[in-house]
Amino acid sequence: MIDDRSAKYLDTLIPEVKPVFAAFLLEVKEALKEEGLDYRVICGTRTMEAQAALYAKGRTEPGPKVTNAPPGSSFHNFGLAIDCGVFRGKSYLDDGTKEEQALADRMHKLAGSIAPKHKLRWGGNFKTIYDAPHFEYDTPYSLAQLRDRRQQKRPLI
User: Fold this and answer.
1) CB count in 10 Å sphere of residue 54
2) Is there a contact between 147 and 52 (Cβ–Cβ < 8 Å)?
3) Is the distance from CB of 124 to CB of 108 less than 8 angstroms?
4) E strand or H helix at 9, and its extent?
5) Which of 23, 27, 119, 152 has its C-alpha lying 20 to 30 A from 33's C-alpha?
6) What residue ranges in 37-118 does DSSP mark as E strands?
7) Contact 21, 12 (CB under 8 A)
8) Do 134 and 81 meet the contact criterion of CB atoms below 8 Å apart?
């Protein structure tokens, strides 16, 4: 069963990919249940303004860099990506102790191994940044093409 928080973020995605991400999430949740853990969506579609704020971190705003993607350069901006977190009850393990973070990373890798079955790409395989919580729909279009297609009001997948 998909939790309310995940459902809320899945609802922000474009309609064509919602069932794909939902099926992926349910499969990962089932796999993590054996460990007493849960996998929840913590981010879905992101506005250009929200992307700009994230991109500013570690550049013009305090804090570490969290993304290499300026606005319009993230699949989140097109309703084609989610970020997930590993939870034990209400505890978010990705920001926990070193041991909890290592466990979360192992669970993200497990999810990453399931992703291709659902036509998703895993951020843990990115060349420029290791983004273990990130999953995006494997669309045939580049980000530049997605920006053009959105401007032309053409389908994104």
Assistant:
1) 21
2) no
3) yes
4) helix 4-10
5) 119
6) 38-43, 81-88, 91-92
7) no
8) yes
Is the CB of residue 48 less than 8 Å from the CB of residue 102?
no
> 67-71 long-range contacts, Cβ below 8 Å, gap at least 24?
67/129, 68/128, 68/129
Collapsing DSSP to helix, strand or coil, 74 comes out as: coil
- DSSP category for residue 124: G
DSSP state of 61: B
pLDDT tens profile 9-32: 999 999 999 999 999 999 999 999
Q: Count the alpha carbons within 13 Å of 155 in the hemisphere toward its beta carbon.
A: 6
Percent over 70 (pLDDT), the chain = 100
Crossing angle for the helix pair 98-114 and 18-33, to the nearest 10 degrees: 130
Measure Cα distances from 6 to 50, 93, 102 in Å.
Answer: 19, 16, 23
